[in-house]
TrEMBL record:
Gene3D superfamilies: 3.30.70.370, 5' to 3' exonuclease, C-terminal subdomain (1.10.150.20), 5'-nuclease (3.40.50.1010), Ribonuclease H-like superfamily/Ribonuclease H (3.30.420.10), Taq DNA Polymerase, Chain T, domain 4 (1.20.1060.10). Keywords: DNA damage, DNA repair, DNA replication, DNA-binding, DNA-directed DNA polymerase, Exonuclease, Hydrolase, Nuclease, Nucleotidyltransferase, Transferase. It catalyses: DNA(n) + a 2'-deoxyribonucleoside 5'-triphosphate = DNA(n+1) + diphosphate. Single-chain monomer with multiple functions. This is DNA polymerase I. Residues 321-522 form the 3'-5' exonuclease domain.
Length: 934
């Protein structure tokens, strides 16, 4: 921060920045994982708030600034409407102690900090904005809160700090459909469910905007409500007129508050060095302290000179992107990358498929804001190109592919230069097809996943999401350069002036993310998980995906014909049982047959339509009661899915160049560290039915080879015995006993010899069900027994194995305390909803938390085995290659003469992947097809 320039003040109006403190707090809290300072106090929101405030103070050009906070939940609006904001949940437990520390942060930077009992921060902001404009001071409100958009006018603007963009009248109209002066009228009609502002029933923002545009304002609309043509809308506007007026009073910001601090107290001031340093040291913010020393405050022992802070640099660096179109420029960038030791890379292709997309260009970044794009196969438009009109173009100036490959080859394999990508597995495929191998590599998507998992929800590790979350930067969207729908073009048709900005930005923000995320591995004790489990999987999975697995289309086509015939037979039988034809695939028509015509009873209703459900669980219940029609519908659905999802679709998935199916493995798609499989999903091929197992007959080995299946035996039960320290189960596993029979014997007092198979089946259902938190209702459905009897079985299980109950309670406590649980190897499995006030949501989160260390531990173990296998096979001189991982099973393609030796080696590696208090056991099988090998 600098003192105002008096000469500038004479020619430009004063400026005031009013910061919506609450918006900053919650954005900071939800953007960062849990952090604690040395005394154990949570400070993730404090840290995020502090860095955001620093960035604002560095970037803003203003003479006055203040941060405005909410003082409490109760304001004058609760006197108008007692339920105002009444249903908002309490602040998270770990955020509450951070509120006063955040106020301390503002004061430590010597910035005015204002709050007032009985009023919201928005009212204080409105009041200060009005006072400032009366003095000719321009106002910027730092917030994206829609409630503050009513303040926008000449001299008053909003600034969204997350998207780094101003919000003026045009943006307000885009949001509300009206100008800022009519926002309050629209909100009064539409209401706001998040704040319990009732509005008028049946009227949303779009309709409200149309009405206000037509009638001018709220009072004019209410006075002329009788003119409204739609009867229901006319009735509601008349009936709820007073409610609309009350809603207007709730959303209208007060701009006449007797505020506690004058504008004169908002002058920008340098912080007190001792106070700022003491605050940062107390809270353990070493990287922030390194940044401000020599900048805002002197560094102890010398006259300044801030220490390099890659995190701060990654956040604040401006961007300068270059287009590389000649070999000399490329050589300069290669040399710069070699000197930098770390380079981010990204590829652009002409198709989304990693296996089929052609390389169009490569981008590199050597420092935050310093990136380039190397076009290689562009065809049209833009800088350096002659637009011929009508879609025709002269080929742009580009480096020949062979020459580019020759220049990049040494760099991309240089062990002294770390190559960083975001989902770099995709780029490894693309580059491999032009002869470029890449090593060593880091992956920022995987880094983010290891650190934050599913803490912020599923699918939150995309580059666009992370750039916005961590840097407040909105990335250029693919549709902005390639269009969408029928007019979408492939990237090789994108003009180079647009291509360079889009492609280089990806590499730039990948490098920024790497500098931000990599240091957190040490701080959060996640180095082992990343370095030994997930990072080595990236090149390994790329190799597996390129290998693919051979599929015989003739087998699939024969199965498809068989399934089609069976579907037809079942359709005829269902129609005969119903007494007439109907669309079996229509839930509505099926429901009419089952519940109206046949008068079958079901209490379950669809959450979407409110009609009686015809889901699989309902049909299974009805079939268990002896009704034939729902049983045949289940069969019909099974065969229909097998045909459409597998036998028909898999034929289309066979790569014509390789004759093999190449799935894509995902490392970041689950909450427990398990891999996922997509395009196609080869992990969900049904194996519980004979018909489903037949699909695996189509997966075959190449001539002279066999498929080897290596499957962990009961690994999750073994992990339960280990982590819960269940002595009886551990002893049974050590003796190689039938674990389900032993369980049944202890629960029901029956000897193992000559045991009724039904008892063993019940024990097996409980053994596996306990891992997933099965309820008495779930067990009763699975075993077709009364719920009371199922509950007695569960109670007996816990009585016989009390250690499992202790483990469950211990795990739930850990999840509630930290927000996550850990696997044996340190992976964090997040438990969002663990402290939810809704008992159903909380119960779901508790069951997931109990299961996560077990399922996640099994996932970690098989990853450890997979990472070790390639080197073990190479050292043994064996020619096997790893093709698939299906949860607890690995599939390899093995030269037929090496089958026995390979199976023995794979068993040894897999069984030695972890040291537990029970033995790990692997079952292996070899055959010409997957079905026979498993």
């Amino acid at each position: 921060m600098t003192e105002p320039d008096s000469t500038a003040a004479a020619t430009a109006p004063d400026r005031l920045f009013l910061v919506d403190g609450s918006g900053y707090i919650f954005r900071a809290y939800h953007s960062l994982p849990p952090m604690t300072r040395p005394d154990g106090t949570p400070v993730n929101a404090v840290y995020g708030f502090t860095t955001m405030l620093m960035k604002l103070l560095a970037d803003m050009d203003a003479e006055r600034v203040a941060v405005i906070f909410d003082k409490g939940r109760k304001t004058f609006r609760n006197e108008i409407h007692p339920d105002y904001k009444g249903h908002r949940p309490d602040a998270p437990e770990d955020l509450v102690p951070q509120f006063p520390i955040i106020r301390d942060a503002v004061r430590a930077f010597n910035v005015a900090c204002v709050e007032m009992e009985g009023f919201e921060a928005d009212d204080l902001i409105a009041t200060y904005a009005k006072q400032a404009r009366a003095r000719g001071i321009d106002v910027t409100v730092v917030s994206s809160d829609k409630d503050l958009m009513q303040l926008v006018r000449d001299g008053v603007a909003l600034f969204d700090p997350m998207k780094n963009r101003p919000i003026g009248p045009d943006q307000v109209r885009e949001k509300f459909g009206v100008g800022p002066d009519r926002v309050v009228d629209v909100q009064a009609l539409a209401g706001d469910s998040s704040d319990n502002v009732p509005g008028v029933p049946g009227i949303g923002v779009k309709t409200a905007a149309q009405l206000i545009e037509e009638y001018g304002d709220l009072e004019s609309l209410l006075a002329r409500a009788g003119e409204i043509k739609q009867p229901k809308r006319r009735q509601n506007l008349t009936e709820f007129a007073d409610q609309a007026r009350m809603s207007r009073d709730l959303v209208l910001l007060r701009d006449d508050v007797d505020v506690p601090e004058p504008l004169e107290g908002f002058d920008v001031r340098q912080p007190d060095p001792d106070a700022l340093r003491a605050f940062l040291v107390e809270n353990g913010f070493k990287s922030v302290l390194a940044k401000v020393e020599g900048d805002l405050i002197p560094k102890p022992g010398d006259g300044g000179g801030a220490a390099a802070d890659p995190v701060a640099e990654a956040t604040s660096a401006a961007a300068a992107y270059a287009l590389v179109q000649d070999i000399e420029a490329l050589r300069r960038w290669v040399a710069e990358a070699r000197d930098a030791d770390v380079v981010a890379i990204d590829t652009e292709t002409d198709a989304l498929s990693a296996m089929r997309g052609g390389l169009v260009g490569i981008s590199m970044a050597t420092a935050p804001g310093r990136a380039c794009y190397i076009p290689l196969a562009h065809k049209g438009g833009g800088e350096g190109q002659l637009d011929l009109g009508g879609g025709g173009t002269e080929a742009p100036r580009q480096i020949p592919l062979d020459a580019c490959v020759a220049e990049l080859k040494d760099l991309l394999l240089n062990p002294g230069v770390l190559k960083v990508g975001h989902n770099i597995k995709y780029d490894l495929h693309v580059l491999a097809r032009v002869g470029l191998e890449v090593a060593p590599v880091d992956d920022t998507m995987v880094l983010s996943y290891v650190l934050d998992g599913t803490r912020l929800g599923q699918g939150t590790h995309g580059l666009d999401d992370l750039a916005e979350r961590h840097f407040g930067h909105a990335m250029i969207a693919f549709k902005d350069v390639c269009g969408s729908g029928k007019t979408q073009i492939t990237f090789d048709r994108v003009p180079l002036d647009k291509a360079v900005e889009y492609a280089a930005e990806d590499a730039d923000y990948t490098l920024r993310l790497h500098r931000l995320l990599k240091p957190r591995l040490i701080e959060e004790r996640m180095v082992t998980v990343y370095e030994t489990l997930d990072r080595p999987m990236v090149p390994l999975l790329a190799t597996m995906e390129r290998a693919g697995i051979k599929v015989d289309p003739a087998v699939l086509k024969d199965l498809s014909k068989t399934f089609a015939a069976r579907i037809g037979d079942l359709e005829d039988e269902v129609h005969r049982l119903a007494g007439h034809p109907f669309n079996i695939g229509s839930p509505k028509q099926l429901g009419e047959v089952l519940f109206d015509e046949m008068s079958l009873q079901s209490g379950r209703k669809s959450s979407k339509t409110g009609a009686k459900s015809t889901g699989a669980d309902v049909l299974e219940d009805l079939a268990a009661q002896g009704h034939d029609l729902p049983a045949r519908v289940l069969d019909w659905r099974q065969f229909s899915k097998l045909k459409s999802t597998y036998t028909d679709a898999l034929v289309e998935d066979i790569n014509p160049d390789t004759g093999r199916v190449h799935t894509t493995f995902g490392l970041t798609g689950t909450s427990t560290g398990r891999l996922s499989s997509n395009d196609p999903n080869l992990q969900n091929i049904p194996i519980r039915t004979e018909e489903g197992r037949r699909i695996r007959e189509a997966f075959v080995a190449e001539p002279g080879h066999v498929l080897l299946s290596a499957d962990y035996s009961q690994i999750e039960l073994r992990l339960v015995a280990h982590v819960a320290d269940i002595k009886a189960l551990k002893e049974a596993f050590h003796h190689g006993a039938d674990i389900h029979a032993i369980t049944a014997s202890r629960m029901f007092g029956e000897p193992v010899e000559g045991m009724d198979p039904m008892l063993r089946r019940r024990a097996k259902a409980i053994n596996f069900g306990i891992i997933y938190g099965i309820s008495a209702f779930g067990l009763s459905r699975q075993l077709s027994i009364p719920r009371g009897e199922a509950q007695r079985f569960i109670d007996a299980y816990f009585q016989e194995f009390p250690e499992i109950l202790d483990y469950m309670e211990r795990t739930k406590d850990e999840a509630r305390k930290h927000g996550f649980v850990r696997t044996l190897f340190g992976r964090k499995c997040w438990a969002p909803g663990i402290n939810d006030k809704n008992p159903n949501a909380r119960g779901l989160a508790e069951r997931a938390a109990i299961n996560a260390p077990i399922q996640g531990g099994a996932a970690d173990i098989i990853k450890r085995a997979m990472v070790k296998l390639p080197d073990a096979l190479t050292e043994a001189g064996l020619g096997a290659r790893l093709l698939l991982q299906v949860h607890d099973e690995l599939i390899l393609e093995v030269p037929e003469a090496e089958a026995d030796q390979t199976a023995a080696l794979v068993r040894k590696v897999m069984e030695g992947a972890a040291s537990l208090s029970v033995p790990l056991v692997v079952d292996t099988g070899t055959a010409g097809t997957w079905a026979e090998a498993h």
